[in-house]
Amino acid sequence: MSVIEPRKVVDAAATLILGKRSRLELSLTCLIAGGHLLIEDVPGTGKTTLAHVLARLLGLEFRRVQFTSDLLPADILGVSVFERETGGFHFHPGPVFTQILLADEVNRATPRTQSALLEAMEEHQVSVEGATRALPDPFFVIATQNPASQIGTYPLPESQLDRFMMRITMGYPDPAAERALLTGRDRRSLLADLQPVADATTLVAWRAQAACVHVADALIDYVQALIAHTRDSGVYRLGLSPRAGLALLAAARAHALLNARGHALPEDVQAVLPAVALHRLPAVEHPGSHDEAARQLLQAVTLPA
Q1: Is the N-terminal amide bond of 138 cis, ω within 30° of 0?
Q2: In this predicted model, what pLDDT tens digit does every residue of 63-100 receive, in sequence order?
Q3: CA 13 to chain centre
Q4: Rounded to an integer, what distance in angstroms lies between the CA atom of residue 245 and that of residue 170?
Q5: Do 196 and 219 share a structural domain?
Q6: 283 in helix, strand or coil?
Q7: Looking at the predicted structure, is the pLDDT value of residue 286 above 80?
Q8: What is the DSSP string of 2-39?
Q9: What is the mean predicted confidence (pLDDT) over 15-31?
Q10: Could you report the per-residue pLDDT of 129-185, keeping only the tens digit for each?
Q11: Which of 5, 46, 97, 244 has its CA 20 to 30 A from that of 86?
């Protein structure tokens, strides 16, 4: 399949997920940047549908795991089973061996099971029963979680939150989009009609192009100033780590590619910063909404000339 513009994926997804174009752009940006995505919101706002739509449009292998309190690490990674015919153990891969893994309601599983994803997300491999096994390429985790205030949730620790390049919320649809949902066809039937507009080779090409997007020294100065503010201002208990800085630059490059540019701008950094940074910044005092916290951070740092 020939390389197409990434925005065509967003255009196709927007015909099914109504009124959420900015979330779709961030999701595809995260995928192109080589990160993983955490979607936090109340049930029924389209989190799972977004994962299905991306997998279908990109023509990637997709598996879903419903996280529950009794889920075990082996249920995700796989297990060796003794086979009488051969007289030995045979490894049966778990659902993590796929290209897009939907970890649905990830914070309903125990911390032990949540941590089973850490190596997979960071190293794109899993170690099971003394053997290391590589995961497919590309490998992308989309995890959904319910708000921590809901019953039966285990909050993700900082170390696991940091494995997600971005965290987004879906939010409720606006009145026009909600009316279209209420009066239109069922989303599941529309999903079945979706045809791929790209494939794994296309995604690999996008990632290579994003890595070549030019970043000027002045933009790196801006990113460093944002990072330094989170560490030195006293507003946050923990500042952004070097890994967060790398994620911010990678996401800005991918966002520039999504907008058909070969160079990143401060606007790209600003567009991705709330999704990349805020889940890594536990505040000394509650900053209010995510939008307000992002606005305060961006206002505190001067734009480059």
Answers
A1: yes
A2: 999 998 899 999 999 888 878 887 777 888 999 999 99
A3: 16
A4: 24
A5: no
A6: strand
A7: no
A8: ----THHHHHHHHTTSTT-HHHHHHHHHHHHTT--EEE
A9: 93
A10: 778 899 999 999 999 987 755 556 777 878 888 889 999 988 888 899 889 888 888
A11: 97
| Residues 41 and 182: beta-carbon distance below 8 Å | no
Residue type (1 letter), 122: E
> What's at 296, amino acid-wise?
Q
Domain boundary (171, 201, 231) is at 201
Report the amino acid identity of residue 96.
Answer: V
Verify that 194 and 218 share a domain, yes or no.
no
CA atoms of 126 and 301, how far apart (whole Å): 40
Host domain of residue 220: 212-300
Do 147 and 183 fall within a single domain? yes
Burial of 157 per CB tally in 10 Å (0-12, 13-18, 19+): exposed
Beta strands in 148-291 (DSSP E): 166-168
119 with 126: CB under 8 angstroms? yes
Of 269, 284, 268, 278, nearest to 240 (Cα)?
278
DSSP 155: P
Q: Is residue 111 part of a domain?
A: yes
> Is the pTM higher than 0.85?
yes
Same domain for 111 and 21: yes
Instruction: State the CB neighbour count (10 A cutoff) for residue 84.
Output: 6
